[in-house]
Every structure is written in C-alpha cells, then in structure tokens.
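Collaborator request, handled under Task 6.
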Amino acid sequence: MAQAPPISIEPTSPSSNPATIIFLHGFDDDAEGWTGLVQQFQSAHKLPHIRWILPNAPHNHDAMAQAWYEPHAFSPIPLPKRAGDDDDDDDGEGEEDEEGQRTSVEYIWSLVEKEVERGVHPSRIVVGGFSQGAATSLLLGLGLGGKEKPGRAVRGIVGLSGYLPWSRGIREEVGGAMESGGGGEMRFFLAHGTRDQLVPMRIFRQARETLEGLVGESRCTVCVYEGMPHSTAGAEIRDLCAWLEEVLPET
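Structure tokens returned to the collaborator:
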C-alpha cells in the first residue's frame, strides 16, 4: 500500500520546551486536507509553540481510498442479530479490520518515537484525529501496540467525530494495558455533532461510555454540538484550542 510521508508544520514561536501534535485525517482524505486547521490556529496566534505532524494514511485497495484500515458502515439504528452472527462484532455490522488498525497504530507510534528522539518529552505530545483518524488515535491512547513502549504514554488524545473500534482482540489487549496502569494521566478530548449521519450519536455514546469506564470521567472532556454533521464547526475548534492550551501550555 502506497503511503505518502507526513506533512510537518513548524511552530511560529519555537519553545525551549517543545510540543507536538500528531493529527490524523479521516477516511478518503489526506493530510493536506487538514493544513487549513493548522493555518487557522497560527493566523490567530494560537498554539504558536506547537509543531504539527499530519500523517497520510496508505491507499487501501479494497476500500479504493486512503484509509487507516478497511472500514465498515454503521447503521443509523441497531441491527438485529442474525443466526450465526459473532457476538463480538459491533452491533452485527461487520468484522473490524483489526490487522489494519494495529498496523496504523504502530505507524503512529513510530511518529511518536521520532518526536521523542528529537527531544520532545512524551508528556508534550498529543495524538488526535477526525473520524477514522479519531478511532485510530483512541486505540493508541488506550494502549494498543504500546506494551513495549514503557514511559511513552502521550499527554492527550483528541477524537473529533470519531468512534471506538472494539473487536475481541482489541478489547483483550486494551484491557490488559489498562489493568497494568497504562496511560498514566493521559487526557482525552471527544467532540461530536448531533446530526452526524456517518457516525451516529449512538456509536459516539458507546465510545464515550467505554472510554470513561476505562480511564474515568475526570480524564475525559466531552463536547456535543447541536446540529453539527460529520464535519467541524467554529465552536468545536475553539473548544479544542482551549483544551490544547491547557494540556500543552507554552512553558
């Protein structure tokens, strides 16, 4: 699978205490599509000390699009179980591409490791994304692929219009990571629109409840935006900026 290199955008006001945000695009998108968000922050003189890394997902031949893993569609309403359905499938809506999810999480971990090698402390790194990028970020934040990376827990995870893939294998590994104290004081920012027709609110609520059950409500900031579809909005970006200023202050 072909994969373009990440786009890196340097801080407008470098700090002696560097910080990095790694932000993942969604399905059938690319890193270039999110440079505008960074430019929006920088033109408003927000987060000037942040280095941004915008990775590109590989081209998925089965999905015929750039994708962090092969997706499956969500139904707006829960589908009834059929005879022979695997109880571990999310609402019976199809098998998760667990291999693809693990591969993408490992790739994002490699970007985190490169930032650490550059001198950025893990507590000064936030990983986040939109939609499928949010799902991948949540899996990383919950410890997937992090067993051999002690002390590498990042500072925070951002999930915009996202969800939580939850196959049996993912559950078992994440559960083990949480039981061993993974994640430390990692913070989470979740945002979703009530008119999201691609990732319905019920899927978001499931992700929120699962996440809060694993890490505790106190570590989660959850914002819901009335009428927002599967996209971003000004109020959401302002809330995200305020959260990032709190978890990644300039000093």
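The cover message to the collaborator said: "Residues 209 and 216 are 10 Å apart (CA to CA). Residues 76-82, 85-93 have pLDDT under 50 and may be disordered. Please let us know whether this matches your experimental observations."
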